[in-house]
TrEMBL record:
Transmembrane segments: none annotated. Pfam families: EAL, GGDEF, PAS_9. Residues 1-31 form the PAS domain. This is EAL domain-containing protein. Residues 58-110 form the PAC domain. Residues 283-537 form the EAL domain. InterPro entries: Biofilm_reg_signaling, EAL_dom, EAL_sf, GGDEF_dom, Nucleotide_cyclase, PAC, PAS, PAS-assoc_C. Residues 141-274 form the GGDEF domain.
Length: 545
């Protein structure tokens, strides 16, 4: 393109015509302003003209507009042509369309700066951007760092496959992106963990609002391959500058808060506080001590009797693991079992437990006690292993124990997916001779459809209902209804956690079949259980409700 000294176009070549879509006739006499895209501001052009005046030329990238309205990037060089006196008589512009280069550049940039799966910033970019943010923060700036970790994502990945897992992660990223503001930072930090920085808070409670909003977003169902999937997340929050002024520290502290939220039952958020530092150390210790305990098979099994309200007989026991550790003291299964589920350690732990139970069954048999079935708790992750049945069978065979003496307790959450494969697995277990029960009934995703699809023997009403039912009318109504419903489906009902005579009486009136709870006995060692059994036979009439 050639213009005169007033920037009036005098000549363009055919390359110009095909690139911009304008013919020579259309642009002759006009100024290059007809190509302007509006993407550069006035100061851009001022600088450009300054260069041209001072150096006699300018080179750079500029966004222009074609006749059809399309905006495109071009690499442009402008030269001035002067006469003998040094006066500008015309301008001379050469440019080329670089949109193709731009596309490639963008792809390269995305590959190095974003997480390719979710299109959010990758770890490296997130660090850099947060460092920049901190560097430019003023004395009054306050930001929140959130570590968002999906609960039980591992299970979803293992049961439904990586493809579903990947899809879920992109959906989660979209939902996070849909509620952040333009200046906030979002990154998939790795696996199922996302980092979000809420910048420039007015109040710390803004971060709370955000966390609540996020949990609400994530609790809505995801639709993947004709399935409806529910997930929850645990969120940890730290604040700049209160908890730290370095990226690393902020992430670490938010991470610890996230673990705290998980331990507290998941699907919630938690703030960092100083005592958490020691909690995190405890978790590290817990993991290494658990690994040792697995090696040494250092777990002990206690047994809690179940009493039939009909016959007043001990009709079974539940095996409950106990772990006393030299360094950590007695650690409750309520603490280490969920932790073991998260870390995958539950698989070897479950096998140690099953072995010990088998050994006790063999021991009881040698003492003439052959009729007491033992129920064991099956963790979700364990149940979902492909070779679950083979491995259980291998242990039973090793100790010559029959499945008839074993009852498997699965929680609602483990079987929440009413899928064909789960039904199939349960039917197979039942055929092999195992009895099946649903544990903690009433606390999970109460999809009732599985109750008649699954071949269940027992349903265990969660202790929270039993313990409150003598005071709270609505809890009593729930227990009553569960019993009725289960009986309709020919499933027997076990009430868990009955502590008082009143509770047991009420349960009997409502038609409950079996009771397990401190009222009859706490979980006790195998030796103590043998004594208990003897005494029970002697005094059982007196204990009739
Ligand atoms: P769960 O399977 O629902 O076990 C019942 C829990 O209620 C046991 O707690 C038991 O000690 C307690 N309990 C029984 N009767 C009463 C009562 O009258 N009052 C009160 N307050 N509590 C009562 P525990 O042994 O601490 O176990 C907690 C949970 O840890 C179990 O809940 C189960 O989910 C898990 N767990 C325990 N042992 C094992 C195991 O061997 N394998 C697996 N996978 N999980 C286990
Ligand atoms: Mg149980
Ligand atoms: Mg239970």
């Amino acid at each position: 393109m050639i213009t005169d000294d007033k920037m009036t176009i005098s000549l363009v070549n055919t390359a110009f015509e095909s690139l911009t879509g304008y013919t020579l006739q259309e642009v002759k006499g006009k100024t290059p302003r007809i190509l302007q895209s509006g993407k550069q501001d006035a100061s851009f052009y001022q600088n450009m003209w300054k260069d041209i005046r001072v150096k006699g030329s300018w080179q750079g990238e500029i966004w222009n507009k074609r006749k059809n309205g399309e905006i495109y990037p071009e690499r442009l060089t402008i030269h001035t042509i002067v006469n003998e006196e040094g006066i500008v008589i015309s301008y001379f512009g050469v440019f080329s369309d670089i949109s193709h280069n731009k596309v490639i550049e963008k792809e390269i940039e995305e590959l190095t700066f974003t997480d390719t799966l979710t299109n959010t910033m990758n770890r490296h970019t997130f660090y850099e951007q947060l460092e920049d943010l901190i560097a430019t923060s003023t004395e009054n700036s306050e930001h929140a760092m959130l570590v968002v970790d999906l609960d039980r994502f591992k299970q979803i990945n293992e049961t439904l496959g990586n493809e579903v897992g990947d899809f879920l992660l992109t959906e989660v990223a979209d939902r996070i992106n849909s509620i952040v503001r333009a200046n906030d930072l979002v990154s998939r930090y790795g696996g199922d963990e996302f980092l979000v920085t809420i910048t420039d808070l007015n109040f710390q409670k803004d971060a709370v609002h955000f966390a609540e909003k996020l949990n609400k977003q994530l609790n809505k169902p995801f639709y993947i391959q004709d399935r409806e999937i529910y997930i929850t997340s645990s969120i940890g929050i730290s604040f700049y500058p209160q908890d730290g002024i370095e990226v690393e520290t902020l992430i670490q502290k938010a991470d610890k808060a996230m673990y705290f939220a998980k331990q507290n039952g998941r699907n919630q958020y938690a703030f960092y506080f100083d005592e958490l530092q020691t909690d995190a150390e405890r978790l590290l210790l817990l993991e290494s001590e658990l690994r040792k305990a697995i090696q040494q098979k250092a777990f002990v099994i206690h047994y809690q009797p179940k009493v039939s309200l009909d016959t007043n007989q001990i009709i079974g026991v539940e095996a409950l693991v106990r772990w006393a550790n030299g360094t950590l003291g007695v650690v409750s299964p309520a603490e280490f079992i969920p932790f073991a589920e998260d870390t995958g350690l539950i698989i070897p732990i479950s096998e140690v437990i099953l072995e010990k139970v088998c050994m006790d069954i063999v021991d009881w048999r040698s003492r003439g006690i052959q009729h007491i079935p033992v129920s064991i708790n099956i963790a979700a992750l364990h149940f979902q292993q492909d070779d679950f049945m083979e491995r259980i069978n291998a242990i039973l065979t090793k100790y010559n124990c029959s499945p008839q003496l074993l009852e498997l307790e699965l929680t609602e959450r483990t079987v929440m997916e009413d899928s064909e494969s789960i039904v199939h697995k349960l039917v197979k277990l039942k055929r092999m001779g195992f009895k099946l029960s649903i544990d903690d009934f009433g606390t999970g995703y109460s999809s009732l459809s599985y109750l008649n699809r699954f071949p269940l023997n027992y349903l265990k009403i969660d202790s929270s209902f039993i313990q409150q039912m003598t005071e709270l009318q609505d809890k009593q109504a729930i227990v009553d209804t569960i019993i009725l419903m289960a009986h309709r489906l020919h499933i027997k009902v076990i009430a868990e956690g009955a502590e008082t005579k009143d509770q047991v009486k009420l349960l009997k009136e409502m038609g409950c079949d079996i009771v397990q709870g401190y009222y009859f006995s706490k979980p006790i060692s195998s030796a103590a259980f043998l004594d208990f059994l003897e005494l029970w036979e002697i005094h059982k009439q007196e204990r009739t409700i």
